[in-house]
Amino acid sequence: MNTQAEIDDFVLNGHLYYIPHVSLDCAIFGYHDQQLKLLLIKHKAIDGWCLPGGYIKRTEKLVEAANRNVKERTGIDNLFLQQFKTFGDPNRARMDEFDEEKWFEATGIRITKDNWLIDQTISIGFYAITDFSKTELQKDMLIEDCAWFDINELPKLEFDHDEMVSEALHAMRVQLYHYPIGINMLPEKFTLSEIHALYETLLGKKLDVSNFPKKLIALGLLKKLDEKRSIGAHRSPHLYVFDKEKYSQALKDGVVLS
Amino acid sequence: MNTQAEIDDFVLNGHLYYIPHVSLDCAIFGYHDQQLKLLLIKHKAIDGWCLPGGYIKRTEKLVEAANRNVKERTGIDNLFLQQFKTFGDPNRARMDEFDEEKWFEATGIRITKDNWLIDQTISIGFYAITDFSKTELQKDMLIEDCAWFDINELPKLEFDHDEMVSEALHAMRVQLYHYPIGINMLPEKFTLSEIHALYETLLGKKLDVSNFPKKLIALGLLKKLDEKRSIGAHRSPHLYVFDKEKYSQALKDGVVLS
DNA sequence: AATTATTTAGTAAAAATTACTAAATAATAA
DNA sequence: TTATTATTTAGTAATTTTTACTAAATAATT
Fold first, then answer.
1. Nearest residue (CA) to C1' of D26
2. DSSP at A83
């Protein structure tokens, strides 16, 4: 949405190439250096912070639409994306509070109450995890701001997005116990401390410093390399890589962490 | 949908009180006597078997809409209903194969290609479990047939409903390991053999005849009564009830079966 | 009252988890 | 160069959980 012509066309004709009444919202979790963050955006036409989201093209699969949305904001393609819940409460987005003037200012086009955008919408929630230090946040003409927030310092979100975040976080943590979904958050070669810190941060709880990595190794998910890395005084841990085959097997069949 | 006037109104004005482009489908599993069945329906306007489903009223929450649909078919209200996935592939229901004449015959009203019903739809999948011996299947004017099928002898289903069933079954079984969702399938007072058979059937695998019930008791989910039941030669097992408090606690927080 | 097969309690064996100890290591400082 | 150091990581002991197996209790039947 980078030109006024694009915006005008989206508002007037969007219902022809997007599916009306259906949107999606993405809880994009970002990890780096033992910090867990969430990507939020501020629309020009809406006062508070929201999850990034958008509409689904009539030619797209749901996950493709989610991927397009994630890529538009973060610049990253083909992130691990997981559908976690669909939201459809009749008053999840109260359009009676719709401020026509503010929308006109923001979009440069007058949106009437019979426009396809101003109608009840159910929204499909996806979550993703990425390394936030590798993203390049991108706004567009309808987005005033786009930023990473620490997961423990989130502002109050608009609509039902608080509930979405809490459900997304829960779904992500449950999945983390059953599937190895951490591969995108670590460099190709990493230390046991790094993967230990990653899981502790994502799960929001302490894991045993010795037993947890041993479990990953016992499961066959990690392969030890002959290399080491110097990361400071008295510290030269071995480097590991994921065993690609075991990893994708575990993604398919599931594993159990404890 | 029990009069021609209702059908006409639904076809012509349904988009005013239902959300267009969004439907829901319910995989209703039925258990009784160590048999697991699935409820299927045959629409008059469609050749093969389908999951029961319908549209969402603009005033309804998603789960309320699902509940209404389940009640319309089975006569049972307030079943345990669980959203498991939303389906939105662009070619999940190929409306180019829509047979206008057949629809006219079935519905008594001519549906043109610009009708709200003939457009791309994403569908929200729910599953439920009930005791099929307690249901009273109900058709309506648009439904030719409605019946329970053994889970191992399902016909090929229309649209993407085969995939829905497989996803629903998987979701139900995963949940069964984590939450006690069997309460509706047993009489209020039941024997350890009965709950053992229930779980074996739902999970589709053998569970130890002695250890499995012990686990349920150890978790505190079951309370032993002073009563027994005579169910045949040499058989007078104790009766048990669910501990309501522990049960709802486990529904909320989760438990782990193995 | 004896017989029977299911029900269910009990326990032993095995496996998995958790807690703890200490050896190996390489960067630093003497 | 050698001693010191704190992290890394291997090893093992303790504990808990799971699984497998045995047998006692039970009430309907003969």
1. B236
2. E
Nearest-by-CA chain B residue for A124 = B86
Q: Which residues in A lie closer than 8 A to residue B86 (C-beta atoms)?
A: 62, 83, 86, 124
Question: Which 3-state string (H, E, C) describes chain B?
Answer: CCCHHHHHHHHHHHHHHEEEEEEEEEEEEEEECCEEEEEEEEECCCCCEECCEEEEECCCCHHHHHHHHHHHHHCCCCCCEEEEEEECCCCCCCHHHCCHHHHHHHHCCCCCCCCCCCCCCEEEEEEEEEEHHHCCCCCCCCEEEEEEEECCCCCCECCCHHHHHHHHHHHHHHHHHHCCCCHHHCCCCECHHHHHHHHHHHHCCCCCCCHHHHHHHHCCCEEEEEEECCCCCCCCCEEEEECHHHHHHHHHHCCCCC
Distance B221 CA to C12 C1' (A): 26
pLDDT tens digit sequence for A30-42: 999 999 999 999 9
Nucleotides of D under 7 A from a protein CB: 5-11, 17-22, 26-29
Pick the CATH number of B183-253 from 1.10.1670.10, 2.40.30.60, 1.10.10.10, 2.40.30.30: 1.10.10.10
Residue B11: φ, ψ to 5°: -70, -45
- Give me the CATH code for the A4-178 domain, please: 3.90.79.10
Q: Each residue's pLDDT tens digit in chain B (258 positions)?
A: 889 999 999 999 999 999 999 999 999 999 999 999 999 999 999 999 999 999 999 999 999 999 999 999 999 999 999 999 999 999 998 766 778 888 999 999 999 888 999 899 999 999 999 999 999 999 999 999 999 999 999 999 999 999 999 999 999 999 998 898 877 889 999 999 999 999 999 999 999 999 999 999 999 899 999 888 877 766 778 999 999 999 999 988 888 887
Q: For chain B, which residues make up each domain, given as ranges?
A: 4-178, 183-253
Establish whether domains A4-178 and A183-253 are of one fold: no
CA angle B6, B76, B199 (to 5 degrees): 140
pLDDT class of A14 with cuts at 50, 70, 90? very high
Provide the CA B231 to C1' C3 distance, Å, integer: 19
Would an 8 Å CB–CB cutoff place A83 in contact with chain B?
Answer: yes
| CB-proximal positions of chain C, under 7 Å | 4-10, 16-21, 25-28
